[in-house]
Records
---
Amino acid sequence: MKKSLLLFIFSLLFVNVWAQDETIDSLYKNKQKANLAYTSLYKENSEMSYTSPAGEIGAPSGYVINGKLTTTYMVFGPRSLPIAFSVNPDFTVRVRTDRSAGVRTPSFRLGGNFYVRLTEAVLNYKYAQLIFTHHSNGQDGDAVLTDGSINTKTGNFNTNYLIAAYSFGNFINQASSTDINYSYHHKLALEWHKWFNYEPALNGDYGFTRLNYDFSFCVYQIYNGEKGGWKKISPTNIKSKNTLEKETWRFNGQVSYAVNNYADYNFFAPKRRLNIEGSVNYSLPFMQNVFAMAGFGYYGEDPYNIYFKDKYAFMRFGLSSTFSRFKVK
């Protein structure tokens, strides 16, 4: 009797330990899956590159073509940890309508981005970022001319800044005959420059401390893979075995407001402190991570390095690109 009782107790303990091990193993695998999924989210939510003939239409200077090339090198993104690190280079150039069609002052940014996953949920994700960025224009002349104006031809521009950000969003999967899905992304950030080296000519007339908000709305379409090419699923076009999930629309919005002191503007001076822009990006069926792009906005402070004193409304048209969903199933 005693032996049977001991055997029964031992069996219960073994089953309980085995169940706990199974639960721990399952939880560990879920964390690993979340870590891998988030590295893709970080890239999909990164800034877009673009090529724009005529550039910022409405700018004080005329341009032949403008381009922004940026990407995300995910240097550290282990499956076993909820953290990641990327290097983010950003090259922006504006080719002027001068006789030589010169770039004159390219805008170069190089940043390191540290990510922390805040939840295991992928469809309703949350993560934090800490970003350090160097911004300069490759010129070494005096930033201020003898008449007190800014030297936009050969004047030095440089600043270094931190961004602390909180990002969150969600995916909405529609169970419908059209198989159209959506996602929303929000990013709240504080940008701070004065802890690090910067060009002294910026004092009193530059947005050293900014509150930033970025928003994206994406539309994903399921396509059928047939001999005639990819075709969108519809009530009359039934899903086949060979399907493609593709991002077809991306609507972006960015708002930035400088909250530090300016020499000639009070706190409620949006014409100088406010930067705002929006873009519509549409990817044709034969495109992968490329979109036809139209953008509109206003710069109270031109983000193109030494031209920071310029303020104007603008339009921009061309092609854009980023990491986007393009998955054959």
Note: The radius of gyration is 25 Å.
---
Amino acid sequence: MNSMTKAASGVVVGVDAHTDTHDAAVLDDCGRLLATRTFPADAAGYVELLTWAQRFGPVAVTGVESTGSYAAGLVRHLRAQGLEVREVNQPHAHTRRRRGKSDPIDAEMAGRHVLAESSVVIAKDTTGIVESIRQLRVARDGAVKARSAALNTLTGLIVSAPQELRAQLQLRKTTRGQATLCARFRPDRWGLHEPVHAAKAALRSVARRVIDLDAEIAALDAQLKPLVARAAPRATSLLAVSTGHAGTLLVTAGENIQRLTGEASFAALCGASPIPVSTGRTDRHRLNYGGDRDANRALHMIAVCRLRYCQRTRAYAERRTAEGKTKTEIIRCLKRYIAARSTTPSRPTSTPAPLHRRAVRPSPSPAALGRPEPRDGPLDIYRNVPACLCEHER
């Protein structure tokens, strides 16, 4: 990959984003700091920032911190103007010990990271269907956590409730069944000074919270299902790839999958890339504990489910076990292979070719697997998932 200065000439802009303000620094292609300035974090501030930066020359590339949170609006504005945006990490601790910590310094270091091509990646595109999926998933994850907390609270209240209430609730063996009974309680509002009626009121309140959260999660699932099916129809039609798993992988990859340099890049992003731990006569790899842990969990659940229900996967596991591999190592291999085959995109003819450079065997058709042939969606990023779930030999 050529350096930025060779690919395009112009100034480099570094941005340190915050809730209310964005600090920007302009550097020339030799790394000289030209100016720094603070702008409000709103639509007018975005226009003012770009106009100010263009006074020093054409903007070749912009390095921005927090592209998915504080700087999401700025990134959308810059991309709408046809500018290239790179996401950069925070300054290293060594830099902060030498130069100190301030917003203008952080903005300058963001620009220098772009010039040096150190820890920079193309920012995710947040203007498409994948961003819609991400937002709905954030709401659903919050509801799931709140429901778990409510169920735990309900269990604690039942344990400490008066014996007469506990005897009634013992008719149901599950916590959800007990929540249904608790929601029917009718406490005496004038007798709350008595522990029995106070316990009924508390149990009824928490139980209704659980029921409301169940309805909220079901509504979000109904909204997510068509969106994920539209973005990745082939993935959602496969065994072990649910709407949640496909949505997680979509959000991790992003709308603009071309920002990934290859299948190894996506595997590292999911924490599925093997880490060598070889020494002497020992030659082995361990799990990668970095990357997006939600995507790693999705790959893990797909692999575990296939190990249980897919005969080909079980045959692969038996063969690898005979070779001396442990179950953890076998799952690691499956996760890595699933991530490798997940990076083959299906794009319109006007977009670049798939990113991976190594040749892969053609995927078996759904008809050969006994499944209906689904139609391609506009963002069918994971159309070759059938190969990664049914073939495991490199």
Note: The longest strand covers residues 33-40.
